[in-house]
Amino acid sequence: MKLTLLIVLAAVFSLPAQAALKVATLHPLLADLARQVGGERVEVVEILKAGSDIHHFEPGGRDIAAMRGARYILACGKHLESYLDKLRDSVGSSIEVIEVGRTIPSLKMEPGQEIFLCCPHHAHSSIDPHWWHSADNMRRAARVLAAVFAEADPDGEKAYEHAAKAAGDRFSQLKKWAQNEIAAIPRGDRKLVTAHAAFGYFCKEYGFKSLPVLGIGRSDDISAQYIAQAIQIIRDNQIRAVFPEDQANPKVMAEIVRSTGARTGRPLIADGTASEAHTFETMLAHNVRAIVEALKP
Asked: Which CATH superfamily hosts domain 184-295?
């Protein structure tokens, strides 16, 4: 009898601890951040996975089923996920949708924004939803997750706060590394020509001027007049390189290269979903190295 009891107890104590909190994520960067902040207390279910297209994704029936039992759905916000109202109706009131970027200061595509070499008319007054290109914003997002997780799991409050601070410290160190690398580019040459308007927060954080050829979405229509305007700006500013993106159509950028003589830099990771780089650390490191390699003297 005693031996049987010991076997039962041993089996019970050998079972893995069950996560106190289940969350579903709509972006790989949010999934990684949720794991950093939540640790073993949080089970993360990735709905939008690496390699997906954030601008054209919409959850299907299997995705809705995978969210079952989650306390939260983590979204980027800033109008990136146009389907959120429909998603709320589908999952019901038992699952709360958290727009992580809601409290992060927004950048608008509009005249007067000092980071833009120009403002594409097709994106006028649009909010740039790509807030994750800033280390400071990622640090803010870590604090948002810590507060949200603690609301559902008060016993883990200190653990979440500590993990968010540790993540924030790592992001701050990465920002310092990026600043040191970018110092190799003369200030007058810090002009970033990209396929679509995804790098505003990066440009603001690291002192670049931005020239996005497309608008907020990579499939935005673009007029011949704006292409001609972009070509003239590149010539006037003697910009040496332009940057395609990992998921964007390269045709427009190829035309600009042919017309300006600028060289093509390595493709940048704009949306943070590249299979080979879908954490903030790997995405920023890739982009900084590609930009410095192409623009330094």
From this structure: Nitrogenase molybdenum iron protein domain (3.40.50.1980)
